[in-house]
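Task 17 of the worksheet. Students: predict the tertiary structure of the chain below and write it out as structure tokens. Keep your answer in the requested format; marks are given for formatting as well as content.
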Amino acid sequence: MPINIPDGLPAKQILHEERIFALEEEVASGQHIRPLRVAILNLMPTKIETETQILRLISKSPLQVSCDFMRVSSHESRNVSSDHLVKFYETFDSFRNQNYDGLIVTGAPVEHLPFAEVDYWDELCEIMDWAQEHVFSTMYLCWGALAALWHYYGIPKKQLGAKLFGVFPQRLCDEYSFLTNGFDELHYMPHSRHAAIDTAELANHPELRTLSEGFSSGPALVATEDFHEIYVTGHFEYGRDTLAQEYWRDFHKGLPIRLPENYFPDDDPERQPIFTWRAHANLLYRNWLNWVYQMTPYNLDEIPEAIRSLRAKTYGMAEKFD
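Model answer:
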């Protein structure tokens, strides 16, 4: 099935050029199936690029997915036009009384700040609390993963001595997890961050399972037993050239920046990077959407009760996260 995204969104034309089928809204509304409803909280300054990257991965699923874009109202975006935000994004107030099959919370370039000093931290906490009861499964990316682990479990982030920057091998820890079904024992994931999960604290939470981890980059995929929360510490959504763009951006600004590891052939930044993570990125999102489709109720109004029932079945008590 194709992905259903708003008419006029810049990503739609890009996906058409890549031969990815995106339904027009009028056609999608006439099909006699219920598409999965996925909200995307886009915290990245590069809104349009991030939209395209995430929609590209969602589109690889055989399921029809309808996507709504959320933004925080407590932060002013300076890298995208206000017209784009008004046309395609809604603030949390438009979402708070709705239920969703899935939610994706992106990263943000604020790892150097304590969580409480991020200007939209209180609003983000409100959104994460809402997701616990109104979203069947949420995927948190990079800083979004660090933020949610701190908010839900008190697991602190550790500042790294140097930026973790490059494409790193990840070892599969659970080959029988539905989420990593079909993964090779070794897969690659781009990382671009200044902070990491405190793994000593992570080990104190048996309800969180590490599904894959890097030899030097730490946990890559972490999830609750019921997949209600999924944490991706890297950037599976990145395109082939995203790390190169970050490298050249900082290089031309005269900022201290190392070559991304395991990325440019022979460490030559003039050569095209090899796209070593695309297949596993597609597989992760396909597995996630497939699992949500199998487990989420047909009636969106029943999602809060379905979440409680799944928690009770998985953990033996409905009030685990209450």
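Marker's comment: The longest strand covers residues 157-172. The mean pLDDT is 89.
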